Amino acid sequence: MLPGRGRNGRATWPARILGTRTAWTPVGDGEFFCPGCGGDRNYQRLTGHRRFTLLGVPVLPRGETGPVVECAACRRHFGTDVLDHPTTTRFSAMLRDAVHTVALAVLAAGGCCARTSLETAAATVRAAGFDDCTEEQLDALVEALAADTGRVLGEPCGAGLAIELHEALDPLAPHLAPAGRESILLQGARIALADGPYTPAEREVLATVGAALTICGDDVTRLLAAARTPS
């Protein structure tokens, strides 16, 4: 085999002499969920400048590249869209707040806030992460919500309440598996059923919850019916 040629007879020396190198510059940092590590990690946001190299020495600029996100732990690079995924800590807070908002909306739609409904709602909210939530706190919040919005308890879901549900659920829905979205709806359904069959206002609130969670209407109907069947 001739010097400077590979087994197929092609020249290999230019590949060893010429190349490209990227010089990265940090332009920001923070915390993100690293898909490589599978957990919350610190990151640096980098932009790069590529150069042709001759014998390993940068000689000519070749343009910019990036930006990319570099994990401080595994050093892998990812596209900046990875930052759209919430950290584990942020995701837990979003889920907790979503369950709390749904519980309040269902209680407000129910009207009288029966003790059984308050007990079920408080247990649901505590399980979501508000460890010190009590029936009395929820009852007071529902009364305050009605006073603040001018709504009468037990009325259909108004525009203000629908907006609150969408604000809590819209950012969360893309990061939940179908089973997770259904679980939030079912939790609201069980609160509504704790004191008896669904009222029209409760059904309307739960339909709004389903829409915000991107659950189709037929599946919402199926899930609300399933919640009425003892497991």
TrEMBL record:
Highest taxon listed in the record's lineage: Bacteria
InterPro entries named among the record's database cross-references: DjlA_N (IPR007791), TerB-like (IPR029024)
- Residue ranges of every copy of the Co-chaperone DjlA N-terminal domain listed in the record: 127-222
Name of protein: TerB family tellurite resistance protein
A Pfam family of the record is TerB
**Species this protein is from:** Streptomyces fuscus
The uppermost taxa in this organism's lineage are: Bacteria, Bacillati, Actinomycetota, Actinomycetes, Kitasatosporales
